[in-house]
Specification:
2 domains
C-alpha cells in the first residue's frame, strides 16, 4: 500500500511539472518537440560551470600539491599557474571558453532541429 501511494505522489508531481513547463497532456507541441536552446543562456551556464571548475581545481591542487596535469593549461591560457592568482586567471579563461563553446553548441543544436511549420 505505501508503494502505491508513493507511485501516485510521483505521478501527481510529474503532472504538475509538465504543466509548469508548458507541456500539457494531449498537446505535445507546447514543450517537448523542437525545443530550442538560447545560445546566450547556454553559453552563460557552461561558462560559469567551466570557470568555477578550473577555479576550484586550481585552488585544490595548489593547497594539496601535485596535479601535474593542471600545469598543461599553461599551454592554452597565457599567464596561468597553479596558484591563487592562477585560479582567478583560470576562472576568467574558463568562463570565456565555456561561454563561447556553449553558445556555439546551442547554435549548432538549433541548426540541427527541423524547421517549425507554425
Amino acid at each position: 500500500m505505501p508503494l502505491f501511494r508513493l507511485l501516485e505522489a510521483i505521478d501527481i508531481f510529474e503532472k504538475r511539472i509538465l504543466v509548469h513547463i508548458g507541456q500539457q497532456e494531449g498537446n505535445p507541441s507546447r514543450g517537448g518537440e523542437n525545443m530550442r536552446l538560447n545560445p546566450k543562456a547556454f553559453g552563460l551556464a557552461l561558462g560559469i560551470l567551466a570557470g568555477a571548475a578550473i577555479f576550484i581545481l586550481t585552488l585544490w591542487t595548489a593547497a594539496i600539491g601535485g596535479g601535474n596535469h593542471l600545469y598543461l593549461l599553461r599551454n592554452f591560457y597565457f599567464g596561468y599557474s597553479v596558484s591563487a592568482a592562477g585560479a582567478v586567471l583560470g576562472l576568467i579563461y574558463g568562463f570565456i571558453d565555456g561561454f563561447i563553446g556553449g553558445a556555439i553548441l546551442a547554435w549548432l543544436y538549433n541548426k540541427c532541429l527541423p524547421s517549425s511549420s507554425a
